[in-house]
């Protein structure tokens, strides 16, 4: 990586630092093999052990979840947008108060924009270790995770208690909540009634797009995946484009705020004023605001990358339908 302060910052896939104690279900059987990665921004990790690779505010957070087969992430919700694309493997996403309102299976490259305000979870249903990349709205990602009450109860049975401050304490390791700090309050039945049970048509029809379809749409220009005019019509505080070989250009451009490049397929050469580098699938590049740059495939074959930039809108997803 170029050492200049105005050069892009790159987090290589092979250099990602996982945290296995990031969330309240870290000891719960079926969820205890998760690895959480915080790539850009503070994310929503509840553990002091979480490593943050890039702390520069972008208007959104970038993270990832790595899980072996049959490992799941428990039911939770967020106050801001949560968008995933599948980097590796085959994943089942499910939602609803009990996780039974609907589900969808995503393959590599597919993307899902999950409506704000519903409980959701996901699991790796593939045969190998899988990885999904996440985009969370806002610099503080909405202040954390809202867990379904039974997740908090199950975690306590296995020694983990979440404080009202959003920090985890492991009672089996001898940790106790600080004096004057209470456990995280569970949602009441009245509060839970405000979390809708969205149908598969509402979630999948609106917020899921398949990789091959997006590639077909990225002809002479990038496919606007998420945005006010995107194929997922939403205003979550950021826009997502899919750029392919056909829609890439070596014409340099810049943005008035930091942007992020995340290759999905192939190798990409990024050039900027003063340097260049090559990105591979799983790498994440943060491009500083106002830096002239370009990105084109550096080898033959399938090539695509996701491009993310904040819009300056409020970070809460609007779910325009």
UniProtKB/TrEMBL annotation:
Gene3D superfamilies: Jelly Rolls. Residues 69-132 form the Cupin type-2 domain. The keyword Isomerase applies. Signal peptide: none annotated. GO terms for molecular function: isomerase activity. It holds the Pfam family Cupin_2. The keyword Nucleus does not apply. Keywords: Isomerase. SUPFAM superfamilies: RmlC-like cupins. InterPro entries: Cupin_2, RmlC-like_jellyroll, RmlC_Cupin_sf. This is Putative mannose-6-phosphate isomerase.
